[in-house]
Amino acid sequence: MRVVRRWAALLGAAAMLMAVPGNAQAASPKFSETTAIGTHNAYDKAKYTYWAQALDSGASLLELDVYADSLSRRWRVSHSNPLGNDNNCEKAATPSELYSKSRNQDLGSCLDNMAAWQQLHPDHAPVVVKVEMKVGFNNNVGLGPDEFDTLVSRKLGGSVFRPADLLGSSYSTLDAAAKANAWPTRDAMRGKFLFELIPGTVEQQNPFDHYWTDEEYGDHLRDLYAAGNISAAQAFPAVLGAAGGDPRTARYDSSIRPWFVFFDGDAASYVNNGYDTSFYSANHYILIMTDAAGVSPAISSTAPTDAEVAARLALLAADHASLITSDWASKPASVLSSVAARS
What we know:
single chain, alpha/beta, eight-stranded parallel β-barrel, 13 helices, 10 strands, PLC-like_Pdiesterase_TIM-brl, signal, Phosphatidylinositol-specific phospholipase C domain-containing protein, PI-PLC-C1
């Protein structure tokens, strides 16, 4: 009976989503109170010819895979080539150069494209930029958290919503700020990018690397705050992997646990394992559910119908997701910009 009632509610929610396009809302909710759609590996040229088109897509989350190339001391953007760039970012730093320049550029150019695109769309909805640090940071060659922050700040300046912006003047940890629901409204976050950092697949498989991106950036946030310089931080580290309870407890020491308010894991693992995901919405944490198409009943991971996307958004909003991701790059902006109320 509980399942029947849940599906009835979700069908009703899906119908409402189809009737209300884009980001239309009666009143602007807080960023933590909504569920939106993101695109996996949006830097892939097979998905979007240009990175600016990924930004045009209306998606609320776009993903970049970044390698710290220790030989060239550059941030490479690629799926599997740690020494080169393979992506849709252009050598374009002004609006007039977008959609026309050579691609396969480094992270700095991806950020240049974002800055140029923002000049054309200064009132855009908030966009989470999910950065998978494929091999992690390499502080020894100048590719550490400090250098990442410096690059993002230099390229995007005040258009980044930073950890300091969530803290304001009232809170001493991100956890305290999130629990108080200090997130701005979605309208107040127009024109903003939020950077989420996760450990990379190569980093996780490296038997000699036990200090992953999440922990390293968590330490970075703690230390910056202690030094009175938290405003320099440009990103939010995420706890990676679906788990029950509070996954920070087993992963991190007590000094950095309060600096994690982003959580990121497989949607089916959250839903099918019966994890109490209300933990995330009750504390106003940002929960990203990946591979949204794989949740039962499975739908196409590349070309579902608009109605299927709406129903999946409603389903995972009821399971307390903040953002759901898949490979739905072919869907129009009217679909990818959809926003639902988070349960």
